Structures are given as C-alpha cells and as structure tokens.
Amino acid sequence: MGKTRKSVRIVIVGAGASGIAAATRLLEKGFRNVLLLEAESRVGGRIQTLPFADNVVDLGAQWCHGEQDNAVYSLVKNTNLTDGTGNYFKDVKNIRSDKEIVNDEEASALKRFLTNSLPKETEEYKGSVGQCLAENYCRGADQLKDPKLAQEILECFKRSQSSLVGSDNLDEVSGRTHLEYKPCDGDQLIHWHDKGFYRFLQLLMKADPENINDLGVIGERLLLNKKINKINWEPSVDEIRVHTTNEETFLADYVICTMSLGVLKYCHKDLFHPPLPCSKLQAIQGLKLGTVDKIYLEFLSLPDSFIGFYSLWLEEDLQELRQSKRFWLEGISGCHRVLNQPRILQIWIGGEHGRYMETLQEAEILEALQWLFQKFLSFDIPHPQRIVRTQWHSNTNFRGSYSFRTTFADQLATGPWDLEEPLSGLDGNLKVLFAGEATSRNHYSTVHGAIEAGWREANRLNDLYLD
Ligand SMILES: Cc1cc2nc3c(=O)[nH]c(=O)nc-3n(C[C@H](O)[C@H](O)[C@H](O)COP(=O)(O)OP(=O)(O)OC[C@H]3O[C@@H](n4cnc5c(N)ncnc54)[C@H](O)[C@@H]3O)c2cc1C
Asked: Can you tell me which residues the record assigns to a coiled coil (predicted)?
C-alpha cells in the first residue's frame, strides 16, 4: 500500500452527521489528509438549527431517540446538554373538524387498539404495514362502539405513523421493518433545551459552543459550496478523481460518500464512473427516502392551556377539503407547542401533501393554516408574526427527509447492507465507501444511525492501517 495514516488521501462527500462523524473519527485515529466536501453553504445536513422566536428551532432532527446503545446519547449522557420531554405531549387533544374535543380515554383506547394492530415485534409479516393494520382493524371492528370516530382516528393514526416512518402511506412500508429497525430503549424524545441538535455536532467537532462560526477540528479540513457531480473510481487506476460542479478536481485514495439516499437515487447514473454494481442499484431503488416537513409559526403569545391537536376529519368535511385549494392540509399529522419555546407552534406534514406544501408561497400556507385553526378550534388563535417551513424534498442536496424499508425492498431482497457495501479496485483494495443514515442496518432514519455509519466507515479504513 505504501501510504500511511498521515499521507493517505481521504475525501468525504457531505458534512452532515455521518460525514462529520467519519471525519472526526479519522482525525482521532491519526489520519491527517482528510477533506470534507459539502454542497451546501453550511455544515449539518439534515441537522439544521435556526434562530427563531425566543431561541432556536430544529428544521431537521430534533430529538435523540432513546438512550441504550445510542451513539448520540452515549456522547451526551454525562453532560447537562439534554433533557427528557416527559409528559409534555399528553395534553395534545384529538379534535374533530366540527370542533368536538374527543374524550382522552376514548381516544387513547382506540390508539392502543391501532398500535396493537401493527405487525408484532418478533413476528415476520409478509406484506405492508398498511395491510397488516387494515386486516387487524377489520377483525376488531365489530367491538368498536363508535365506528365513525374509530375511522377518523384510524386515518389520523395512519398519518402519524407515516410521518414517523417517513413514508407517503403505510401501504408502501415493509411489514418486516420492525424486524430490522431496532429502537434504542429509553426516552424517545430527548431534547436539547434551547440549543437545538446542532449543539451535538459542536460537541462532536470539538467546536466552541459560544462561537457559531467555529467548526472545531474539521474547520481546516472542510470546503463548503462544493457540489460533487462525478466520482471517477476506475478500478484499474489507483487514484480516485472527485469532480465538482464548479469544475474543480480533488484526488483521493479513498472516498466516503454520505449523500442521502434521495441524492443517490436521482444522481447515481451521472455521479459514478464506472456505474454502481447491481446490488447497490437494487438497494438504491428498493429503499425509499420519504418526505416529512415542518412548519413553525411564531406568535406574540398563545393560550397557556393549549398544547396542540390532532385533526380528525369528519367524512363530509374531508370530501369538501379535497375539492378545495387547501387540499394539502389533509397531510398534516399534528400540531403542537415546543418545549422552551412558549410562543411557537410546530406543524408536521408529510408525503405528497408535504411535497405540495413545499411549492407554495408562505402567504398561502399561512392563510390555509389560519383557516384550519378556525375550523378545528373553539377559540381564536392570534395572527402569526413569522413562519418558517422546510423544503427537504425540493432541496437537491437532500431530496427527502429520512429513509425507510419498502415492500419493494422485500421483493428485491435488498437493504441497507447492500447500500453499505464498499467498492473495490481490481487489486481488491477499497476505493469508495458508503455511510449516511440509510446505510445503517438497525438505526436508519436517525442521527444516531448516521453517526454509527460514519464511525463504521472510518473504522473500516483505520483497520487497514493498523500497525
Ligand atoms: C424533518 C426531519 C426531522 C427529523 N427528526 C429526527 C429526530 O428527531 N431524531 C433523529 O435522530 N433523526 C431525525 N431526522 C433524521 C436525521 O436528521 C438524519 O437521519 C441525519 O441527520 C442524516 O445524516 P446524514 O449525514 O446521513 O445525511 P445528511 O444530513 O443528508 O448529510 C449529507 C450531506 O451531504 C451533502 N451533499 C449531498 N449531495 C452532495 C453532493 N453532490 N456533493 C457534496 N455534498 C453533498 C448534503 O448537503 C448534506 O449536508 C429528521 C430528519 C428530518 C428531515
């Protein structure tokens, strides 16, 4: 091999959680020639913390999901950077489109029944999550005392579950998902006080938290606004040539790709020369990057007792909504207050409706949301002072929010393991490695999955240079 940790050239494409994890691990291990190339004008990728209202909001990742075996939590558990959300969301109400607030116990019982209708923890369900839910719902339907309400809660539950998974609907989600994705035990909604998830990246980069421009140990090894449009990894040639859209070329011995599954889906044909092998193409096609967007509204103040609501559409109202220009409101899965931010509301919207919302002007979004509040709430919500919404799908550096396993991936018998598989040269030496959340076998769709994947690929290279 001839090269050492000090001289070997490693290019990392993307400075999101995974790229930063890979870079910091490599630097820790003594690699010196590490270069991060990032298409955006900022680091963090799908971690994006923005000053808003009284402190900050997270446009992407917001909570650390779990404690046990969680790469994010393992780094912060002995600090005072995080806290649990506790029962904060228990007072979010289920409200029908005629303003009726559903009794909490009745709503909880129905949601328990629906949760129990999802594929069971250890069983393999050969079909989609949507199919499994529909079958079990039909079986239990004759015991439901208010079928109309049950149907409304079912639709709302499907929207919330799709938003959790990141899918357009549950019919595209593999019934095997729960056999592969392993939730980390412990609190699922660990938050970052008034600092946001970016505080975690500052910790990882060893950056000064008081100086937002400080990028710590990666500062001198990072180039922003470098969008890669070709990775020339000719197996018979030692050197890899990495080209950018502004016609620069970087030479590398190894490249670690961390761009999202959405970017890979859209760009792999142009991006890689020679083309990717069949198994990787199957993973890129079979897995999916869904759309989950957020809208934050800032108010002068909000009523103390109001925490948020899930919208239950009466059938006749839903039909009317679907015929109107505000049809996209159907994709909203919930609306709630945010801890440490007394003056804002957070709204979740996903799938086709989310992608449509991304195309609207902010004024149109505001008008529709105010209509929604009037439709569901029996009190007046003041006019928002400011709005910020995400456009994860439209942004060509992401093309979606987070990845999930589809029934198509089941058919192709593919998964994150194929996406992770590195590309080698004719001599068998590694050339191009793949990290990013979608390559994590058990923790895809999360920051901890992205971090683990970055560390995994850094360790893979480090193992080649053990003395
Ligand atoms: C709305 C939303 C809410 C979420 N909530 C949570 C949550 O609460 N908890 C949680 O754990 N996870 C959450 N996630 C998921 C989490 O944010 C991601 O799994 C994680 O941040 C992905 O990190 P990554 O490094 O794999 O990818 P990215 O963050 O996408 O990083 C890849 C980087 O590559 C860059 N790039 C892309 N193409 C190119 C190119 N051609 N050339 C150069 N650079 C390129 C991108 O700009 C990006 O910076 C959420 C995500 C979203 C969108």
From this structure: none
List, for residues 320-350, the tens digit of each pLDDT value.
999 999 999 999 988 999 999 999 999 999 9
d(CA 260, CA 264): 6
Residue 60 Cα to ligand 1 middle (Å): 8
Backbone φ and ψ of 296, nearest 5°: -110, 135
The structure tokens listed for 263 are: 């970017």
Q: Counting Cβ atoms within 10 Å, is residue 460 exposed (0-12), middle (13-18) or buried (19+)?
A: middle
Ligand 1 centroid to residue 61 C-alpha, Å = 8
CA distances from 442 to 173, 187, 368, 400, 437 (A): 16, 18, 38, 20, 10
- Residue 75: count of CB within 10 angstroms of its CB: 16
Give the domain 10-45+198-288+403-464 fold: FAD/NAD(P)-binding domain (3.50.50)
- Domain positions in the chain: 10-45+198-288+403-464, 49-87+290-389, 105-180
Task: Classify each residue of 298-315 as buried b or exposed e, where b means 16 or more C-beta atoms within 10 Å of its C-beta.
Answer: bbeebeeebbbbbbbbbe
Judging by DSSP bridges, how do beta strands 10-13 and 254-257 pair with one another?
parallel
What's 49-87+290-389's CATH class? alpha beta
Bridge partners of 292, per DSSP, are 350
Q: Which long-range contacts (CB under 8 A, 24 or more apart) does 218-221 make?
A: 218/15, 218/20, 218/23, 218/24, 218/27, 218/36, 218/43, 221/23, 221/27, 221/34, 221/35, 221/36
Residue nearest to atom 10 of ligand 1 (CA): 446
User: pLDDT of 156-165, one tens digit each?
Assistant: 999 999 999 9
Instruction: List the one residue out of 54, 64, 60 whose CA is nearest residue 42.
Output: 60
Q: How far is the CA of 98 from the centre of ligand 1 (A)?
A: 39
Q: Answer yes or no: is the C-beta of 445 below 6 A from any ligand 1 atom.
A: yes
Furthest-apart CA pair in the chain: how many Å?
74
CA gap 383, 218 in Å, rounded? 43
Q: Which residue type is seen at 435?
A: A
**Exposed/middle/buried for residue 436 (C-beta within 10 Å: 0-12, 13-18, 19+):** buried
3-state secondary structure of 424: strand
- Residue with the smallest CA separation from ligand 1 atom 6 is 61
Asked whether 85 and 187 are in contact (CB, 8 A), the reply is: yes
How is 160-213 classified by DSSP, letter by letter? Answer: HHHHHHT-S-GGGBBTTHHHH--PPSS-S-EE-TTT-THHHHHHHHT--TT-TT
